[in-house]
Each structure stands twice: as C-alpha cells, then as structure tokens.
Amino acid sequence: MSEEKDELIDKLTKLSEKPGGKQAVRYILNTLGAVPFAGGAIAGAGQLWGEKEQQKFNDTLAEWAAKTDSDLKIITNNIDKLLQTPTRAKLSLLMGEILGDELAKGFLSKPNQYIPIALHNQTLNELEPFIEKSWIKIQPTHSTVQMGGGNRVGNNIEELKRPYGFGSTFNIQINESYFND
After folding, report:
1. What distance in Å separates the CA atoms of residue 169 and residue 152, rounded to the nearest whole number?
2. 84 & 148 share domain
3. Structural domain boundaries enclosing 117
4. SS3 content of the chain, % helix, strand, coil (to 5)
5. What total number of domains does the chain contain?
6. Are residues 20 and 85 in the same domain?
7. Is the same domain home to 69 and 7?
8. CA–CA separation, 113 vs 93, rounded Å?
9. Which residues does 42 contact at the CB level (< 8 Å), separation at least 6?
10. Considering the domain boundaries, does residue 98 fall inside one?
11. Is 120 helix (H, G, I), strand (E, B) or coil?
C-alpha cells in the first residue's frame, strides 16, 4: 500500500479513537462519498460503523484505498478542511471532548435536546461557529463555578475538555437545523 494510503487510513483511525471520533469519521466518509473522485465506496464505509465493527471498518477502508485510483492527497486535504470548518464531524468531535462519548452521542441523536453544563470560556469560543450556523443554541443560566473538581451548580455538569479555571453555566440545545442542513 502506498504511503498516501497508509497516511489516510492512519488519520481516519486516529480520528476514530478520539471522543466523538467514530461519529465524526462517519460524517467525513459520507461527505467524501458525495465527492466525485472519492466515489460511493468510501461513503459505504461510513455506513458500516458500530462498536463491534472497528476491524470491519479498517478492512473496508484498506480495501477501498487499495482499489482507488483517486488522488489520496486531495482526499486527505479535504478531511483536514472538513475538520477546520463548522461541520457535523467537527461538532461531533467537540461535543465528544466536552461531554464524553456517551452523553455526546445521545445529545446529537435528536433535535431540541439540551444539556445544562458549565463551560470554560475557551470552549464557549470554540462553539461559536456552530451557534452562528444555528446548529446549537446556548443560553446562559448566569452562574459561575470553579472548574476542576467535578463541581455542579444545580443540575449543570462540568465540561470534560477544560476542567480548570472558572466556568459559566449554560443550557446547550441541539437545533433541528443540525439535522436538516
């Protein structure tokens, strides 16, 4: 297998191991499947995902990479670009880092759900592109908490990504537009 193919498989595998990564890889593969040079085979790989299907996913991705004549550098660059713009993949990764895999998966599964959470100011800034896209809505609850000890203010949980310093409490809601865009 060429170095570019190894790099692509390695990048997607490492991404899948991050919090929220499996869902992010699924979004990326489905997005790349719509690109003419990537073809439907890569989109099909995104449909295989399941907790017990990691090896099947790796095998399918390796098989696709071995058969394709596409310029893999373009695909790798597209993956990098997808992760730098407000995409479902990027939101999935970010919510996985903030909430943990299980809570993020449930939160991103249906519209109008909300989670009361204490967020670090930097994390709030990272969520801004998704607020602008109207995929999420963040409402302040006007409390401040010292982060780092699994603290709670009311029923607000503390974010996992940056559990240090001071945080403010919010209700994060996933909007219908996230599912429709």
Report:
1. 9
2. no
3. 110-180
4. 55, 15, 30
5. 2
6. yes
7. yes
8. 18
9. 29, 32, 33, 61, 64, 68, 75
10. no
11. strand
